[in-house]
Design brief:
- The chain contains one helix and no strands.
- The protein has two domains: about 30 residues; about 35 residues, no CATH class.
- The N and C termini lie far apart (about 50 Å).
- The protein is mainly alpha-helical and about 60 residues long.
């Protein structure tokens, strides 16, 4: 029973923290990089499907 309560509290804390991040970040959006920069996903060096440019690993996606 104790493990169940701890698990519920931890999951609740996770969702609370995620909600606060969405609320406190400008426009409620997460900023990240292009997934196509991942060398495991983009082995052929194709362009970014989001911003349309060829990006090097670690470079920021410039779409605004």
């Amino acid at each position: 029973m104790t493990e169940t309560i701890i698990a519920i509290v931890l999951v609740g804390f996770f969702f609370l923290a995620l909600s606060l991040r969405i609320i406190l970040i400008k426009d409620g959006e997460f900023k990240g990089t292009c997934a196509s920069q991942n060398p495991f996903l983009n082995t052929e060096g194709k362009e970014c499907g989001y911003c349309g440019k060829v990006v090097s690993p670690g470079a920021d996606c410039k779409k605004a």
